[in-house]
Amino acid sequence: MRLFVAGERVENLVAFAVPNGAEGLTYICQSGPIEAERREAEGVRELGIPEYGSILTTMLVFDDVFVPWERVFMCGEVEFAADLLNKFASMHNVLCRGACKVGFMDLMIGGAETIAEYNGITKAAHVRDKMTEMVRIRETTEACARAAVWDGKEEPSGSGVYFPNTMFSLVGSLNTHYTHYGFPQVALLAADLAGGSVVTMPSERELQNPETSQYMKKYLKGVASVPAENRIRMLKFLQHWVAGPQVAAMWDEGSLQVSRALVRGEALASMEKKKRLAKELAGIKE
User: Fold this and answer.
1) Do residues 193 and 187 make contact, with C-beta atoms less than 8 angstroms apart?
2) Is the whole model's pTM more than 0.90, yes or no?
3) Which of 58, 143, 144, 165 is least enclosed by beta carbons within 10 angstroms?
4) pLDDT per residue over 110-156, tens digit each?
């Protein structure tokens, strides 16, 4: 669905849905490092997140795909496109740029605290500061998502369909995704606490290699008798989050500039009221 192409308004707006595997629909699957690793691994123990897999995306190619009319939602009704985009953005920002990332950050925070314990550095002041900052970002992200949902409204009235508060969902998205803040910052802090081993660590297979296993067990073990196997697995787990495509993957969810523009638009809607209040309290009469 496009509204503008090279600055020109497009009148032929189409939005539709087709069944998975429809004739003429081709899926060109992602081939990233995480998926390549899963294909080559001899067992789940070699993977950072063996239980739940990884992200897999595809490029969809429509080549003469039949779309039944009952599956066409918009066909040229461009006057409704902006409203549709805003409603989609409010839902997407809450679900995929807000609440979803809260769960991801929980995993990075848990992994970072665990590896700090394995490394014997949990009492260091800078470690506590970094863990606190990770928790702050996580909690503000959830707070924005919760506020957006709690302040949602039924649209249209009587439909039974509710949409989250647009402004809260947008600022939650920017809080989570803005460069050097939110999700990227949590990943950077987790990587800092894990240390360089999060990217230079040898494979767990070396624990079974008679030529290297004694070195692996000696130099990769943690404090307080934490076996090398546990420390390697936690570093591998963190590697999935901080040294893979997870951090950059947020940009496939949409442009941050669009979110900023929408925030500005929402703010302008109430700007006159804010200006009036400020002038009244400042004693300005016009």
Assistant:
1) no
2) no
3) 58
4) 999 999 999 999 999 999 999 999 999 999 999 999 999 999 999 88
Q: Which of 175, 179, 184 is nearest to 147 (CA)?
A: 175
The single residue listed with the structure tokens 């929980």 is 106
Is 53 domain-assigned?
no
Question: pLDDT tens digit string along 23-51?
Answer: 999 999 877 677 777 777 777 777 777 77
Structure tokens at 41: 């691994």
Closest by CA to 134, choosing from 235, 242, 217, 61, is 242
The tally of CA atoms less than 13 A away on the side-chain side of residue 113 is 12
**Residue whose tokens read 């649209």:** 155
The tens digit of pLDDT for each residue in 164-222 reads 988 888 888 888 875 447 888 999 999 999 999 888 888 888 898 999 999 999 999 99
Res 218: pLDDT: 93
Parallel, antiparallel or unpaired: strands 162-163 and 58-62: unpaired
CATH of the domain at 196: 1.20.140.10
Tokens of 185: 């910052």
Q: How many domains does the chain have?
A: 1
Question: Which residues 6+ apart lie within 8 Å of 12 measured at CB?
Answer: 76
Is 141 domain-assigned? yes
Angle at 57 between CA 248 and CA 102, to 5 degrees: 50
Domain range enclosing 190? 82-282
In single-letter form, the type of residue at position 174 comes to: L
C-alpha R_g of the chain: 24
Residue 262: which region, alpha, beta or left (left: phi > 0; alpha: psi -120 to 50)? alpha
Report yes or no on 109 lying in a domain: yes
CB within 8 Å of 88: residues ≥ 6 apart: none
25 part of a folded domain: no
